[in-house]
């Protein structure tokens, strides 16, 4: 568990995506070829149950409210309110129209019309993910919002997940998980109409399937097994650090927790507490490294690009500006990742496996695209026309040049 610095960067090589893509390829091909029949067969094979139905009927969703404790519904409402507030305020999907005098240039956002959300449901169930994806999607204006989630033991969907989907505004809910769900949403079956974009987290099979289908359908990002990296000095509470690690490790045997600390004492205490409390988890994936300085920790963290970065040391807030690559950052001892996972308001669907170097977490913009537009006057054409003609000719594109020349010649 306490490992040397040289080991730490090699951890990223652990998930071999090519290997998992090869594994899910036959599943995706079968669903493409045989539709619903394949969805049912793979569900029997991987989830060990037969679905009661593929699409959850409306009455079942309505009844779900009676099967969930009021206190849990209240908790969902608190989470929903905070997620909605943060996502509405931070949405940068603002249409812009600029009048430059002789021309108007602009940028206009429109929602993606149909989006499929994968809501995990293998080891744990994830009603929180329904909120994290559904709320920004509806703020963006997605018309057709589809959820796919694996069956519970009864072959249906857990009432709490149904309530969360309903509160978030999902239009269709299907009982299917894994790579077969991703294929169903990407290519369509007799029951599922294909969608234009697929978002949401999942295990290695789900994430590999998203990587595979992304040549045909847009995806958000690879959001695979959870990760946390904690930068801590001697002021950090070892109990808090240990439990934040265990919290992310409990998601998946492939989850990863890294602690980079300047304190040998802290390292030893975190190791001791994790061993004592986290016996049921894959503690092989908890790596604790003693570093020379907090700056060195930040440098390593930027290379690792963790899904969650927690900074618990003196002047932690000041360090934020040095963070280049991370999905979401948690600063100070009272900001456990679990709060971002559920209810503080930021999104928990985040890039993993080092993809935080190039992808962002889910937001309202994930569900939108923008177009630019222009309205040029004759004087704008006069102003830039000659330059356009020269550049078009230099590229050997005669008709581009001509299309401007003919306009310039006309009085
Ligand atoms: N990065 C994020 O934003 C984020 C957020 C939440 C959860 N997560 C991650 O989501 C994941 C949830 O995983 P889970 O397993 O609990 O649920 P899941 O729904 O992702 O996966 C369950 C499905 O995996 C498929 N499957 C299982 N074994 C298989 C096999 N051998 N071959 C092919 N398919 C197989 C089954 O079809 C099953 O329905 C965890 O890794 C968790 O860390 C990530
Ligand atoms: N930690 C997960 C993202 O890696 C999100 C989550 C959902 N529920 C609990 N946690
Ligand atoms: Zn979590």
From TrEMBL:
Its cofactor is Zn(2+). It catalyses: L-histidinol + 2 NAD(+) + H2O = L-histidine + 2 NADH + 3 H(+). InterPro entries: Ald_DH/histidinol_DH (IPR016161), Histidinol_DH_monofunct (IPR022695), Hstdl_DH (IPR012131). Substrate binds at residues 226, 248, 251, 308, 341, 395, 400. The gene is hisD. This is Histidinol dehydrogenase. Its EC number is 1.1.1.23. Keywords: Amino-acid biosynthesis, Histidine biosynthesis, Metal-binding, NAD, Oxidoreductase, Zinc. HAMAP family: HisD. The keyword Secreted does not apply. Zn(2+) binds at residues 248, 251, 341, 400. Transmembrane segments: none annotated. GO terms for cellular component: cytoplasm. It holds the Pfam family Histidinol_dh. It comes from the Archaea. The keyword Transmembrane helix does not apply. It is an enzyme of class 1 (oxidoreductase). GO terms for biological process: L-histidine biosynthetic process. Binds 1 zinc ion per subunit. The active site is at 307 (proton acceptor), 308 (proton acceptor). Pathway: Amino-acid biosynthesis; L-histidine biosynthesis; L-histidine from 5-phospho-alpha-D-ribose 1-diphosphate: step 9/9. Belongs to the histidinol dehydrogenase family.
